[in-house]
Amino acid sequence: MSELNAMTLNELKDQADILGVKYANNIGEDALRKKLAEELGEFTEDRDPAPATAPADDDDKVTIMIAPDGQDKQPVFVSVNGAPIRIVRGKKVRVHKKYIQALENAIRVIRDPKTGINEEVMAYPFQTFLD
Hints:
Strand content: 25-35%
Number of domains: 2
C-alpha cells in the first residue's frame, strides 16, 4: 500500500487503467487508492498519502504487453525514480516510456543444467505495439 500512498490522483488513475479497475471520473484519491489496494490484495490502513511528483504527459506513453508466466500470475512491479506501477501480464496496457528501460534492464540468469553455462534473459519479456 505504501507505493499507492505515494501516487497522485493521475498516477492512481493510470494504475487503475493498467489493472482494469473501473472507477467514476470524479473519484477521489483515497477511494481509488482503496480500490487499487483491494484489487492487488493488499492490506489497507488509514494514513496520509505521501507527496509525489507530477505525472508525465500522455504523449509519453507506449502500449506494451508483458508475456504471461505459467508459474507467476501476479502483476509485474516496476518502479522508476520512486514512481511505482504494477503491470498485468498478458494484457495490452499503456505505460510511460520510462518504464520500458526498467523492463529492458530487468534480467535473470538461467543456468543450463547440462553444460553449466549461464545465460542472461529478460526477467519480464514484453512486446511493444504501435498505437
